[in-house]
Specification:
single chain; about 375 residues; alpha/beta; Rossmann fold; nine-stranded mixed sheet; 10 helices; about 30% helix; binds flavin-adenine dinucleotide
Length: about 375
């Protein structure tokens, strides 16, 4: 039976050649990223411990992940006079996939002779699509029911990891190829944006559990994108659980990222109009010849996609702590993760498929806080 663990030796064997290739190719992966911090023995790495108590919760929020069991749709089609390019249904990985999926959508649009487009949707997918079109010289008008700060994209945790994007049993070779291409392109694009301007940084992620940890699709098939993956032995980490996996990934601060994309869009001559479309015919009467459908969950009703379902996610926030320089996933009660951000320490979460209620549930907040309080109370600092 295949072992799902990552030993140091196995990880080096898997990635050694990929990393060497990146270095030879002059890839900027490590430039200024502080990699030396992660190279030193973990036993000497200091860990700040978050202070988790119910009375420190500053807000609870809910978002609905736009999930398609068969994975996100990127496809162009002719509808009457228009070419409509769909780019929606990215589930729990839309921030991660944004640049890559939008690059595939823009490639579809570029098959036409046109250079004027309407983008429907002002979340991460609409904004990255609009920016990539502008980079190619297109004139873009963005129509959206909600301003970026009120979208699902603004609720995202922001870890760079393509998770909960499809159901394993619905995976097809065609989607796998599209998914991998989008992931790789996106990773490349986000690396170039590391820094305060776009709210992107490299950070360690610790997956925690008392049962052996499964290996997600992206680590099995694209390990070279996640430096320093390693299963740690007891004594090598401070966490009070049996199984710990460390990897290094990127963290995107959604509000910083979306705000910057919007100002880049405007600076490049883009026009934003707040408008809700009630029916597909309204979209098809827009003056622009090409329509990029980046309406997230709204695409289901507009274009009759019955497979699109919400996966409800709830988050609780504590005041920010700049000393925290790692993420945790797991280790609490039920779904749990801790992401330190400049707007607060985010504690997640929940995955409730088919539930579209956006009101935060006090019992879920209580469960999330209790699980993290118990976890961090037993952590060695
Ligand atoms: C709790 C939670 C945590 C998450 N964590 C992460 C994470 O750590 N990493 C990650 O990569 N992803 C994460 N995600 C997933 C991510 O948020 C989504 O995949 C992503 O935001 C989808 O982006 P989008 O632009 O397609 O949709 P949205 O952000 O929902 O944008 C859709 C846009 O379309 C507009 N629209 C919809 N219908 C209409 C209409 N009829 N007329 C006009 N406009 C319309 C809306 O107003 C909006 O502007 C998380 C999501 C949640 C809820």
């Amino acid at each position: 039976m295949e072992s799902h663990g990552f030993s140091r030796r196995r990880w080096l064997a898997v990635t050694g050649s990929a990393l060497a290739g990146a270095a030879l190719g002059g890839c900027a992966t490590g430039a200024g990223a502080g990699w030396e911090r992660w190279a030193r023995p973990l036993s000497r790495r200091p860990f700040a411990v978050p202070r988790v108590t119910a009375d420190r919760v500053i807000r609870s929020i809910v978002g609905l992940r736009p999930f398609r069991p068969a994975g996100f749709l990127v496809r162009g089609e002719r509808m009457g006079e228009k070419v409509v390019v769909h780019n929606y249904g990215h589930g729990g990985g839309g921030v991660t996939l944004s640049w890559g999926s939008s690059a595939l959508a823009v490639r579809e649009a570029a098959r036409t002779e046109e250079r004027v487009a309407a983008v429907v949707g002002g979340g991460v997918m609409g904004l990255t699509t609009a920016r990539l079109l502008q980079d190619r010289g297109w004139r873009v008008t963005l129509y959206t029911k909600d301003l970026p700060r009120h979208t699902t994209s603004a609720v995202a945790g922001g870890q760079w990891a393509p998770t909960t994007v499809f159901d394993d049993e619905a995976l097809t070779p065609e989607f796998e190829a599209q998914f991998r291409e989008a992931v790789r392109r996106s990773h490349h694009a986000f690396q170039a944006l590391v820094g305060a301007g776009y709210g992107v940084r490299w950070i360690e992620n610790y997956s925690l559990g008392d049962a052996p940890l499964g290996v997600p699709y992206y680590l099995r098939h694209m390990p070279e994108l996640f430096p320093s993956v390693e299963d740690l032995r007891p004594g090598e980490h401070p966490f009070p659980v049996r199984h710990v996996r460390r990897m290094v990934t990127m963290m995107v601060e959604p509000m910083v990222f979306l705000t910057r994309l919007l100002s880049d869009f405007r600076e490049a001559g883009g026009v934003l109009e707040v408008r809700e479309f009630r029916h597909r015919s309204e979209v098809l009467s827009l003056p622009q010849p090409v329509v990029m459908n980046c309406a997230g969950l709204g695409a289901g009703a507009l274009f009759g996609d019955q497979t699109l379902v919400p996966i409800r996610g709830q988050l609780a926030f504590l005041p920010p702590d700049p000393a925290l320089d790692y993420l945790t996933v797991g280790g609490g009660t039920g779904v749990s993760y801790m992401f330190p951000r400049s707007d607060g320490i985010l504690l997640g979460g929940s995955f409730e498929r088919g539930v579209s209620n956006r009101r935060p549930d006090p019992e879920t907040t209580e469960r999330i806080v209790r699980g993290h309080r118990e976890l961090f109370a037993r952590m060695r600092s």
